[in-house]
Amino acid sequence: MNKSTLSLAVAVGIMAQQASAAGFIEDSKATLGLRNFYINQDYRDGSAKPNKNEEWGQGFDLRFTSGYTQGTVGFGIDAIGLLGVKLDSGGGTNGATATSYGGTVFPSKSNGEAVDNFSSLGLTAKAKISQTELKLGTLQPKLPVIVTNDGRLLPQTWEGGQITSGDIKDLTLTGGQIEHVKGRNSSNNEQLSINGASPRTINSNKFIYAGGDYKLTKDLTAQYYYGNLEEFYKQHFLGLVHNWAIGPGVLKSDFRYFNSTDDGANGHDPLYFSTGNYSGVKNGKGKVDNNLYSGLFLYTVEGHTFGGGYQVSNGNSDFPWLNQGDGSSAYIITDSQIQKFARAGEKTWQARYSFDFAKVGVPGLTAAAVYLHGDDIDTVNAAGRQAANGASEWERDLTLGYVVQSGALKNLGLMWKNAMWRTDLPNTRSQDENRLVVSYSIPLL
Description:
Helix content: under 10%
Shape: globular
Radius of gyration: 23 Å
Number of strands: 22
Distance between the termini: 33 Å
Structural class: mainly beta
């Protein structure tokens, strides 16, 4: 039994003795989330098979969140049970490859076929003193240096420990260590890696992170976070978010800066290298070396939100983030439905618009459109020679959603997400994608 499992078992035992204490049961909540998810990815270039990836399934997300026992130190426990049931895997177009952890939505068998169903159970022991909370077990952090992905049938989860403190006025501090990840298309805990490292063979079981959010004023928040994936990279993040009332609306300014450098084996071992553009180096891989700057501006007025942003990814490597090759998210303004727009040297501008139809008498109906265009992408081929010089890519995303506001179907959600991605990068296939999502949440406690 490893240390984290033993610690979790001890904590659960202590809580079991105190479960009858007031607060543990009274403040508990339980919900069952239902998600029906369909995805179709259509490749527009080339003749290689398959020309599309397609899967459809029904997901169940059961969550229990306890209150805390009484006393100076309060104890509690959370649980999350996930089940995904295959409805269709596209007749062999599930997107699984020899080195992937699974297909687009479902894990795959040894022959590449999608499994009929997959499930997992996560437990989290927690303790609280004043406004400081410690969690050990299954986590779903959403921080600048580690972001939980929820873009498929079931969400991604992590295993580790995290402490969060709000005891200092206007300051929230967070720190933790992650040892394993369970992908959105997997029932298994896997170790951690980055894009470019040898798939499924070169990993790390230690990602540490720490940082904080400080409210300088009620409208201005400053952020600093640090993340370190052992043997791969170190990353510093600075952020500044400001809300400014201008006329009848509010302007939100969101500035982000990441500095990422190599750590351990990534600095010298090709098996640990990141993707990027290293002139003269085979496959264009090397140590992590990236500075990413971005600014996003959103003006909201009378249900309308108009936005624009710009991002620059400097350095010899692509922007690094926790990525095992099974679907992941990064805290950058260009993390889109299909692409990330964070290649070495890439400069990306974006425009976006959304509207809340509640302002015209249709509450629950929303629509959004985003367009991104990235330039100055250079790549290197397998022989180390230049493959692309100043290549570009663009993506257009559309989202239409509706949540039933009343009646027997209250809180039933319907969503359609459509994306187009086009590029002139060599040996790269452009893509169209559609997602249809029907969701419903049932409170149990």
